[in-house]
Amino acid sequence: MRQPLAGLAIIGVLALAALLAPMLPLGSPTDISKDLALGAPTAAEPFGRDDLGRSLLSRVIHAYRVSLGVAVTSALLAVVVGGPLGLIAGYAEGVPDQLIMRPLDVLMAFPAVLLAIALMSVFGTGAMLLSIALAVVYTPVMARVARAAVLATKIEVYVDGARALGATVPRLVLNHILPNAAAPMLVQASVLMAIGILIEAALSFLGVGVRPPTPSLGLMLADGRGFMVQAPWMVVFPGLAVMLAVLGFNLLADGLRDWLDPQHAAGR
Q1: Cα angle value 10/137/222 (rounded, 5°)
Q2: How far apart are CA 63 and CA 56, in angstroms?
Q3: Structural Rg of the chain based on CA atoms
Q4: What is the pTM of this model?
Q5: Residue 97 belongs to domain spanning
Q6: What is the mean pLDDT of residues 193-221?
Q7: Domains held by the chain: number
C-alpha cells in the first residue's frame, strides 16, 4: 500500500497547489520585471526568475493547472470513449470486434507524439484541444486494455453461472464483467496520465501545445534552453516539476496494479 499512497500524496499535493495557485502569495506568473531578469534563487524566490523577470515558482505552480488538467481530462475521455468500445468488442467478438478494433489499430500505427502534433496542427492549440488530441491518441490503447480484460473475464466460472441463471446481457456485462475488467483500465488510466504530462510538455516545448502567456512546463523548458549556462534554474526546476508529476502517477499506477491484482502482489 505504500506505493499508491506515496503516488496519491504527490499528486494530491500538486493538484491542491495548482487549484489554490490564484490564492497563494506567489505573485502573478505573467508579470514582467526586466530589472529582475535571470535572478538567481533566493529565500523570497526559491526557484529564481526567468529571462523576463517572472517568478519561476509562480509559473511552475500555475503550469501544473495546465499539465494536470490535460493529463486527467485526456485520460478520462479515453476511458469514457475507449472503455465502452473495448467492452463491446471483447464481449461480442466476431464482426463487431473487427469493425471496432481495426480502425483503432490504424490510429495505433502512428506514434503518439506525431499523431498529437498532426491533430494540433489541424485543429489549433490550447489546453482543451490538447486534451482532446491526447484522448484520440489514448482511445485505442484504452479500448485494447478493456477488450483484453473482457475476453479474460467473460470465460470465468461465475460469469457462466450468471448466464446459466438467466442473466440478461446488460446485467451480465454491467454486474459481472465490467467490475472485474475495470482494474486494468484504472491502472492504464494512471499510466496514461503520466504519459500525458510528458506529451503536454513536449508539444508545448515544440510550440504546438499551450501558447504564451499561459504558463506551461514545456514552454518554460523551451524558454530556458538558451540560458542553461548563465541561469540553469530556468530548466532545472521545470524539469524537476515534470519528473515529480510523472513519478507520482507512475507510483500510483504501480501501487494500484499490486493492490488490484492479488496474484501479482503474491508473486513479488
Answers
A1: 60
A2: 10
A3: 22
A4: 0.87
A5: 2-21+59-262
A6: 88
A7: 1
